Amino acid sequence: MPADERFAVRRENARASVPRPLTAAPAPAGVPLPPGLALRGRLATGARRPETPRGSGRGGSGSRTPRTGRGGGPRRAYERARRAWDRPLTAYYVILGSSLLITVLGLVMVYSASMIKALDISKPATYFFGKQFLAAVIGGGLMLIAARMPVKLHRGLAYPILMVTVFLMVLVQVPGIGMSVNGNQNWLYLGGPFQLQPSEFGKLALILWGADLLARKQDKRLLTQWKHMLVPLVPVAFMLLGLIMLGGDMGTAIILTAILFGLLWLAGAPTRLFAGVLGFAVVIGFVLIRTSPNRMSRLACMGVSEPDPEGGCWQAAHGIYALASGGWFGSGLGASVEKWGQLPEPHTDFIFAITGEELGLAGTLSVLALFAALGYAGIRVAGRTEDPFVRYAAGGVTTWITAQAVINIGAVLGLLPIAGVPLPLFSYGGSALLPTMFAVGLMIAFAREDPAAKAALAMRKPGVRWKTMRRRVKKRSSGER
């Protein structure tokens, strides 16, 4: 036999001697194969596992799924912050947290700014702080009550609050009952060291009553007619303004006018109607300022950097001195120089100047940031609701707090005339603090009424969480322990 044929025979014998792998016979339909037999069958038929790309394992540099943990750069941090801000309870927590922080910081600054004033009138150093703390406790109770009240009950209180406020404002002008403080006849004596300024409650009364009025007219599709938009909202607002101006309080009248314009803007007033009412208010304000030497002197003190030789613009100039001497981080809590008799009213209208002197630019920017957060949360509540009353009331409260803060801070900075209005939730004054805290509770109630916020709050109740945990627990047999 030739050599090549012998080599071919040997090769065939060698191949025949190698054992073949077991192959799995096709299983009948519906009968699964045993795992081992199925694996051998796949290996025998040449099936291969899908290859994983290089670098996709641990420590590899291939493509990975995005991680949600730490890191990721500013873009990912921005996305996380945006998602957190869009959560249903964000407005609820921002309103509650910012208002409480402003109130607590205001108590600290009232104590620091009023110590010398209290000692100067032969009172204890904590005299003004004690009264403000008592008002904050009562206001906190009012805020809690307002936050727990349903929207229908708030609407039901609109007319009673308006009537009681008008009665008290008329009572202020009765000789022998009303009191005059710093030239303004706007106070009622309650006994002891306590007084009440009814015009501060007029802001809350106008918001609740105006919101209820506009909501009912919107439901009847009457706001498309200018007479229904203006009457009786504008006449009632002008009645409140007239009672306030009888006492000479121009600052509160400006805030009430801002609330009126805010309600008209939210109701969708036409531009010409809005401009007409605004022009009429400007003319009335100009006449009132020109006919009062005191108001003209306040207007002339805008932007001054030093007092007149005759002593004019003393308060405006020393407010600028207090802010300028504070620097970046201030002279320290309680270390103000201007409160030692140089700056009039350091714990009321010009408490922001003392804050700048003792806490510096960092402290004043913190206060501004808190007011900005509170205002933005109020706008969010008003913009996301479907209830017209909630939209008008939340927008009116936001306009009130924001406008009053801008007017007060603008006067301290010398950018606006000194209007004599306190900084909301911050300055000394129980008559201003009580209705403001009730209004904050009103916005908290509105934030809770959002359907998504309701669902989120319901999931956080103890009963719901306990039921959820019980559903997750697996049932055990009777023999297990």
Overview of the molecule:
By secondary structure, the protein is mainly α. About 65% of the residues lie in helices and about 5% in strands. The chain has helices at about 5-15, 35-45, 75-85, 90-120, 125-150, 150-155, 160-170, 200-220, 225-230, 235-245, 250-265, 270-290, 295-300, 315-325, 350-385, 390-410, 430-450, 450-460, 460-470; strands spanning about 180, 185-190, 195. It has a three-stranded antiparallel beta sheet with strand order 1-2-3, covered by helices on one side. A hairpin with a 2-residue loop joins strand 2 (about 185-190) and strand 3 (about 195). Helix 8 (about 200-220) runs antiparallel to helix 16. The radius of gyration is 36 Å and the shape is globular. Residues about 35-50, about 50-65 and about 465-480 have low confidence and may be disordered.
Which features would summarize this protein structure in a list?
3% strand, 3-stranded antiparallel beta sheet, 19 helices, disordered C terminus, mainly alpha, 64% helix, 481 residues
The number of E-state strands comes to: 3
Straight-line distance between termini: 82 Å
Instruction: Report the mean per-residue pLDDT as an integer.
Output: 83
Order of helices and strands: HHHHHHHEEEHHHHHHHHHHHH
Total helices: the number is: 19
User: Strand share of the residues?
Assistant: under 5%
